Structures are given as structure tokens and as C-alpha cells.
Amino acid sequence: MPSPPAPPSTGLRIQPFRAVRYDPVLAGDLSHVVCPPYDDMAPAHARALRRRPHHLARLLYAHDPNEAAGQLDRWLRRGVLRRDARPALYVYQQQRGARITQRGLIGELDLHQDAAEWILPHEDVRPHAVAQRAALMAGTHAQLEPLLMTYRSTKSAAAQIVHRATGRPPVAVARSGALTHTLWACTDPVEQSLITSGLSGCRALIADGHHRYAASLRLRDRMGPGPWDRTLALLVDSTTGPLRLNAIHRVIPALEPDKAAAAAAEVARVRPLPEGPRLPGPGELVLAGGGDAWSVTDPDPGALGAALAGRPSQWHGLAAAVADRLLLATAWSVPDLPGAVLHLHDAGEAEAVVRTPGNGTAVLLPAVSEDTVWDLATAGVMLPRKSTSFGPKPIAGLALRVFDPAA
What we know:
The protein has 407 residues and is of the alpha+beta class. The chain has helices at residues 24-27, 43-50, 57-60, 65-78, 127-140, 157-165, 189-197, 210-223, 257-264, 301-307, 319-331, 347-353, 370-378, and strands at residues 14-15, 20-22, 81-83, 89-96, 99-110, 119-120, 142-143, 147-151, 172-176, 179-186, 204-208, 230-237, 244-247, 249-252, 269-272, 285-289, 292-297, 342-344, 361-364, 388-391, 401-402. It starts with 13 loop residues before the first strand and ends in a 5-residue tail after the last strand.
């Protein structure tokens, strides 16, 4: 067997690990225990899933980190969850019918001190959410779902190995809705080294999981050397399979749409849309409610400058900044409090929520381009919170990172 190539000295560093996975003999059909992405579940749905005996929601949505830690420990002792015998990089694929919607690599991503040069967040975070994620990680000594990250590779070796791995028997298969989720384990050290060397010099953009990434950094800095130096991550090569990028829309339940349009007209150009709600074009927002709709364009420069005072100059061209700072905060005085604003990933769903009069106002946003996100992240400019929706996101539960007590 040929000697594996030397590991890269710069760029992303992803390492094989011994994943903790459900034993289907004891846990049952994996489709009944894996969990939708954390941010994609309504509280009522999470509560319903927590009633299932071995569902991962019992850990992800536990009321107390100690409660989750105890549950995780019991599942490990009973064999419901088992640690793989050999370190692996895991190939993860989502498929809808015959169409592959996502394919990437799951491993432990190194958070070495110069990692900030290679790992690019692009959205701001809420401190209380970071604290919650950190408490769950510290309490369970585990990372239960991977960060979703995208990178641009110039080498084909990793892609070839990933493709080759999908021709082998999978180690896990689960269904969620119309999607089939499949996991393969790549345990060959030579293949692992070829994959890791293919990431040399690459940067990765965090597509989803900013709060979990910030929580990992917080624990790394507080705890010192140890398992906190790495984080569970799914890396998707956008040169072979780009992620989908959509906007995230706002719904303000307590705001009447006609009053919203009148107040918006004081700081921007507002025009009625007789044909009703539609997706906005570049440089446009669409207000909707009670079956009516308005186009919002051309923000007043003085009002926008005052609303974005102290913010990066690049924010002036971002729809989310205009929506959140100029409209919600300035024109409408919507408080930054839980429940005051709902964030929905589907424009049709957002419009449907407010279609009945009295249910509030929706603000529909255009999607930002991936190149714009990369350019801003590379320049160190964070986008406003809830600006982007990369997908498809991975389900949680096929491969967990539970810290080895010996680590």
C-alpha cells in the first residue's frame, strides 16, 4: 500500500473520528429517531418528537443540559448509541428520488488558533443563543449536529474518493419527508489523507450553524487544549454540488399592513402591487398582508444612513439591513424581543400567515448571491442576522461527535 501524502500545513483541517451512531437493532428505524435541523422545527413539533423513546430531539431540545447528558449516557450504556470501531471520514448524501440534492464530508474540523483565516462566518449571532449552545455542548460533552460549510476546491482527488465511496454499502440510511439520507464510512487511511490534502489552501464559508460555531470557539478558549479544539462539520464542495441559497423573510404579527406601508412611505418609495404579493426583485422588498401587497424600493439616503449608523458601509446594499434597521427598527419601532418578529424560510408560507386580515405584515426579501456572501465574509463583514438560508441542511442523528473520555 502506498504511503499516504503528508497532511496540509495550511487551510482547512478535517480529521477522521469515531462517530457515535444509532444501533438500528435497538433504536429501530433510523427515520424515526433522526431530527430535522435545529432551526427548522417549530416548538410544538419538537415537543411531539421528544415523546418518542430514542428520538434525538430528546437531547437537542432538552430543557436542561444535565437532563440531556443523563439521557445520552443511558443510551450509550444500553447500546442504543454505539461508537464506531475505526476512525472514519463520513460521506453524507441527500437524495430526492433520482436527484442528488447534496453530497459532502462529515469529520472533525480543527479549530486551531489560525483557523479564523480559513473558516469564514458570515452572519452575526445572538449572545444568549451562543450561551445556550455552549451549555448543551458542555453538559453533554457532545456535538449533536454538524456545522454546514461550503468550500471551493481546485483538486479532484477528494471528489473522486467521495464518488467512489458511494458505490460501497452504506452504514446508515434514513428517510425524512421526500428525502433519503445516506451515510458511508471512509476508513482507508490513504483515502483519508488524499481527502484532507485536497483541502490544503481552501477556505470554507459557514452556511449554517453560526451559533454552534461561536459556542465551540467559546468552549475552546475557556477550556484550553482538548476535544473543544475541534467541531463536527459537514463540508460541501460548491464546485461539484453548490448549496441552494434563499432569503429569510420576516413576519410581524402585531403590525397592520396598511399602517406598515404608510410608515414605510416616509423613508422609501412605496408602490401598491395590484396583482398581489410576489417575490421581490434585486433592490426591492415586498410588503404583504390581508391579500394586499406593496413594493418598497429606493430608501431615503439620509434615513438609511441614520438607521445604519455605526454599521459597515456594505450593509447599505443589503435587503436584510434595510428591512431590519430602516423598516422594523426605525419606521415601525418593532422591539427586538422574542416573538415580535417571526423568521420564515419560505415566501409562500410567510404570505399565507398574513393573508387573513388581522394576522400582521410579511416582509419578503430577495436572495443575496453566494458571491456577495463570500466577498463580505472574506472582508470580515458580518451580514445581519437571518440574512441567508443555505440548504439543504443535514439532518441530525446519523453521526454524532461524543467526546471520548480519554481525550
